[in-house]
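Hi,

Apologies if this is the wrong queue. I'm a grad student, and the batch job for DUF934 domain-containing protein from Sphingomonas natans produced an output file that my downstream script rejects. I'm not sure whether the problem is my script or the file. Here is the sequence I used:
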Amino acid sequence: MSLIRFRVDEAHEEPAVTLDAFLGQSNATAVRVEPGEDARVLLPFLDRLQLIEIAFPKFRDGRGYSSARILRESGFTGELRAAGDVLLDQVVILRRCGFDALASDHVLDLAKVEEALARFPAVYQKAADAKPPVWALRHG
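Support response: The file is valid. Your script probably expects a header line. Output copied below for reference.
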């Protein structure tokens, strides 16, 4: 599994526990959310979580995008990692939803990831990545 981070601050290396295990033990700082699990149950704990890993068992399962956006828009500032069947084609959308790290089952070339992230400097709507949309830049 290759791990790529979009930001350069300190990495969180503690293994993530399952959501059930996290809810059963209050001292974990890293949790893994599987498809079908409701990420909103983590909202009361966001201030102490350092890593939330969201599983993508198949690239075509998009539920993780919604979980990421909910968590970021609720104030989560720690590392948000997409893990599993993550492809290069998904990198831009993952970043827009708030992910700042990838743990892909595939070998991803860091240069290609950076190229993909830089390909579209302008965006047209607000998202969890806080990039200002073009209309806001033009009209304030």
